[in-house]
Amino acid sequence: MKSFRRMVYPYIIWAGIFIVIPMLMIVFYAFSKEGNAVMTVSFTLDNFIRFFSDSIFVNVLLRSLKLAIITTIICIVIGYPCAYFMAQLKPNSQTLMVLLVTFPMWINMLVRTYAWRGLLIESGLSPELKVYIGMIYNFLPFMILQVYTSLSKMDRDLITAAHDLGCDNKKAFLKVTLPLSVPGIISGITLVFLPAVSSFFIPRLLGGGSYVLVGNLVENYFVTTGDWNFGSAISLIMTVVILISMYFTRKFDYSKEDR
Amino acid sequence: MKKFISLLLTLAMALTLGACSSDDADAGNNEYGCDVLNVYNWGVYIGEDVINNFQDEFNVKVNYSLFESNEAMYTKILGGSHYDVLVPSDYMIERMIEEDLLQPIDKNIVTNLDNLYDGVLNKPYDPDNTYSVPYFWGNVGIVYDKTIVSEDDVVSQEWEVLRNEKYKGQIYMYDSERDSFMVALKALGYSMNTENEDEINEAYEWLVELDQKMEPAYATDEAIDGLIFGEKAMGVMYSGDAAYILSENENMAFYAPEKSGTNYWNDAMVIPSNADCPGLANEFINFVLEYDQSYDNAATVGYASSNAEVLADMTAAGGDFEGNDAYIPREQNDKDEVFRNNEPVREMISELWIKVKNS
Hints:
The structure holds 2 protein chains of 2 kinds. By secondary structure, chain A is mostly helical. Chain A has one domain (56-258): MetI-like (MetI-like fold). Chain A has helices spanning 9-30, 46-53, 55-88, 91-102, 109-120, 127-152, 157-164, 169-198, 201-206, 214-224, 228-258. In chain A, α6 (127-152) packs across α8. By secondary structure, chain B is α/β, with parallel strands linked by helices. Chain B has 2 domains: 26-136 and 266-315, 3-Layer(aba) Sandwich (D-Maltodextrin-Binding Protein, domain 2); 138-264 and 327-357, D-Maltodextrin-Binding Protein, domain 2, CATH 3.40.190.10. Chain B contains 13 helices and 11 strands. Chain B has helices at residues 2-23, 50-58, 70-78, 90-98, 151-157, 177-187, 197-214, 222-228, 239-248, 278-288, 291-301, 308-315, 343-357; strands at 36-42, 61-67, 85-86, 102-103, 132-145, 171-174, 217-219, 234-238, 252-255, 264-272, 304-305. In chain B, the strands form 2 sheets. In chain B, strands 4, 5, 6, 7, 8, 9, 10 and 11 form an 8-stranded mixed beta sheet that branches. Chain B has a 3-stranded parallel beta sheet with strand order 2-1-3. The longest helix of chain B is centred in the N-terminal third of the chain and has 22 residues, at 2-23. Chain B is globular, with a radius of gyration of 22 Å. Residues 15-27 of chain B have low confidence and may be disordered. Chain A binds chain B through residues 9, 12-13, 16-17, 56, 59-60, 117, 121-122, 127, 205, 208-210, 212, 217, 220, 222-227, and chain B through 4, 7-8, 11-12, 69, 71-72, 74-75, 175, 177, 211, 216-220, 222, 225-226, 229, 231, 346-347, 350-351, 354-355, 357-358.
């Protein structure tokens, strides 16, 4: 068994080169001033002070979090019943439903978002609403699939047992089905919330340029302004915010299991 | 752990070696010994057959890549990417010359310079065209729907019409700090190349007021379709895009403010100093200046050609853009300016622009 462990090396190298080293570079940039040469580097907290001392940047961060949280909640509200319904079907129909849910994902996300732009261009909706539509549309399948997987693995006899012990349908759902599907919801949240909070092309394409999110800020500072230090600081701040929110989500998961 | 590090090093070496060997291209069949030419240009900015014609004539493969902003292109070059021909705008060319990122054009190879229209030569970003050969040119103005926006309002108020509350919710602003600050500074009667912080702040206030009063949509290329399909009635537009809009929707008109002036711009072909095949790059530039290729470019893209003869034919009777007000940019207006490169100002307006859009 031990020899199998070596098989993880390729991934460690992959992650080292493409994840760890770039992350370290971002941390390095975030804490340094302009001038990327190692010889002249000076460490500073200016980039972070600049971010938090200006209400505009903080507002953009809060707006991104709000967008991501609302998107995630709506995805749960729409996705859970859908997944629940799928899990009740006959096995063959289930396969078909899974296929239908994944169907749109065969087309590139960017292309689909362009299509939405065309659909919404004359709708007269507010830019904010257009962004929400695009986000929920793009991320909903991730939520449905995660919840569906956990629901379909569930042992049906548990529900029967709950009924035998005097639960009505509602109570059986609340006491048995829902708690057992929490891990699915949690991984669904991870898959929706993380990309949603850092998404930048959906707001850019559908929000008409006036709807700036953290992802757009980072892009702007890297590409247009060329201020990589501040751009790195913003991405680092976002990373920390994501880590904190993930910590709380996980904690919620464990506390459920403890019961 | 030691094993792991040595493995990592081996891998890194393999990667670099691999990169080297792919650079060692086989000798091509043309006199410059290259078999690939890397061209980096704006999206929708070349004739349909220009690349194929060049490939056939010089027996090379052209790798044609696209950028969507001067800054994105610049970042890519700084990142160490190798290209042979770029087509940046005036201020970016000036910056790249200052930073030693370009090499002079070889005028022994580029013999078609005589084809160029006089009006595009010797501009301040590259005073004697040592490093750059003009490609397309134009100005910036207001495209408006004559059936909704009164022509009198546009001509009398010029840029200020963008803040006329009669047209609230009807306008596109150009989503770029450079172009929007140009509009604001010109509206206020200042130079768009100002270094005066008070003037820049005033322009910022102007834009904030516009943002709050008019609920504009900020867009770049998306505004082209938006105006053609009548989603909004007015927008700040580059003359070449305006010419296209006018040819697609006859209700549309174009006005480049005369009293306040506007941005007169050039996009030009340059050769970066790290180009792999400068000889062939010069040939490519020379090739584009030929009548047929320039004509193909102009007919496909709709911007004003740098080729004098093509320019004349396009607007002559029977030409693609006969009677199109936006096609040939006006010249000889003292108020019109060319963008200059200025790093501190650029950084300042870049940040102010984020604030405008979030105000």
